[in-house]
Specification:
4 helices; about 25% helix
Length: about 120
């Protein structure tokens, strides 16, 4: 059975700085990894786009995230491009690692009060 591409990237270092540790989330256009910023010795989250995202969407997401600053939005720390063995580029963004339960976990634990729904929104 072949190893999933995401698992092949574990322990890879991006930008001579960010070491991928484990997958923490997957979506339609990207995979998010827990990683370590080896220059600063801190944990980070790295979103690596897959081939379905397309360069326009990747650039748009990076630009949008870079322009936003709000206490409820994860902070963009860095962005870059990594190349695989065949020379194919993969764009990635480095974000602050937010720990805690997911929204799915929270919703399955108990009903959410209207006040909290407003805070989440």
């Amino acid at each position: 059975m072949p190893v999933p591409l995401e698992d092949e990237l574990i322990d890879r270092v991006l930008g001579n700085r960010y070491r991928l540790k484990r997958v923490i989330g997957r979506g339609g256009t990207a995979t998010v990894y827990r990683a370590v910023d080896e220059a600063l010795g801190r944990p980070v989250a790295i979103q690596m786009f897959n081939l379905r995202a397309g360069p326009e969407r990747e650039e748009g997401e990076v630009s949008l995230l870079a322009s936003l600053e709000h206490h409820a939005i994860v902070t963009l720390l860095d962005a870059g491009v990594d190349w695989d063995a065949t020379g194919r580029p993969t764009r990635y963004i480095v974000m602050a690692l937010v720990t805690g339960s997911t929204l799915t976990d929270r919703l399955s634990a108990s009903p959410v009060a209207a006040r909290h729904i407003g805070e989440i929104g």
